[in-house]
Amino acid sequence: DSIDITLVLKLQHKISEVERENKRLKQRVDEIELSPETEHARNTARDSLKISELELQNNDLKEQLKILREAISEDLGSKQLLSQFAVLEEKFERSREECIQLRSVLANQPANIISAVSKKYGGMSSINEDGELALAYETQKTINKQLELELQDEKEKYQMYEKELKLEIQKLKEDNENQYKILYSLMDSTPNSQSEAFMKKEITRLASENLALHEKIDELTELNRKYKKQAKMFEMKLKNAGIRKKDREYMGMFEFKKGLEKEIVSNLVIGLKPRTAVTLLPGLPAYILFMCIRYTDHINDDEMVRNLLTAYMNGVKKIVKKTNDDWEIIVLWLANSLRLIHNLKQYSGDVAFQGSNTLRQNEQCLRNFDLSEYRQLLSDTAVFIYKSLIKYLQEKIQSHIVAAILEHEPIAVGSNKPAGMRGRVGSVDSPADIKKSSDELLRQLANTYKILGFYGVD
């Protein structure tokens, strides 16, 4: 197929225009975002909101002050003073509003300052009493300076814009010359030679663009290397300045105040839900409680550790008895009670439990307390939780056990029973009911094992 040279040239020209327009718009957006006018507009909007809020607060305070004055004024003299004060305050507000209007006139209409002031006040002496005219003059000077700076910024922007346009015009001239050369070379040639000439021109153009891109990559690589070198220099300066992260030695304790033992247990035991505990580290409540125990051992407060462990055991028994139909809670506190018992054994200081400890773990053993009696009480609590769990599971799967066993012993149902008994058995459980009970039993056992695995007691 022959190449439509005219269409290709038009498309190239259109793509170039779109790229230039896109680049110009990006630069314009950056200039607008960084321009002082945009920042001034943001500041003006923010200041106007602050002024509105302050005016509302000022009005509220004035109303409150007025109420207080009326409340404390009982005699005639106080009322007269208040009325005089109200008149003076009204005059002050009027003069303040006039000053604000005068300054706005000076800012917005600098060419008509004298006429506006004369029209407002009827003369110059009335505004020059407190030096307001000098203040307005200084304000006008500041405004003029700001306008000069803005004019200089605009001038620099347009100079840069003019330079970019000149470069773009030069580039367009070069493109036009190349396009004319291509057209002149293709006017008297055959279609095959036209395609060949066009491909040569395209290869030349792509080669020049590729070279320009390589030069740009080299510049960016050099700039990147320079920035990396600067970053290393700054890093060395920071190291030499001695700015380091403060080293902290964690003691593995949770400090708490005396009397908060019941509150800790309430938040840790009663307030913890199984769905939340599944997402945490297995045995995390037990570790937190053990860290509190280590703190009581560190300060050698026997009453605190006694209250803490007693509150824990009472709280666990209470929540297990209260929610005996939610067996996830039972499994949760069985796992945490066992973990707490193991921690108390591992860090008790007894040689029998230190066989697998590291040197660091042996250094963190309890130093002041012998909690062997509490370990026994915690073991009794764990046995109580375990019995509650077994009782719940027995009640849950008891109704499915007989039917599931009968499904796997069909001969016993058909031949080893008397005729009357066979009739009763056949009338009670149909094959469909037996199959359903067997599937339900397997589902219950699988779900039980999965929950036990979640909490680490499988």
UniProtKB/TrEMBL annotation:
Domain of life: Eukaryota
Keyword tags: Coiled coil
One Gene Ontology molecular-function label: GTPase binding
Keyword set includes Cytoplasm: no
Cell membrane as UniProt keyword: no
InterPro entries in the cross-refs: Dilute_dom (IPR002710), Myo5a/b_dom (IPR058662), Vascular_dev_regulator (IPR052072)
Coiled coil feature spans: 8-98, 137-182, 210-237
Entries under PROSITE patterns matching the protein: DILUTE
UniProt domain Dilute: residue ranges: 310-458
Name of this chain's protein: Dilute class unconventional myosin
Organism of derivation: Hydroscapha redfordi
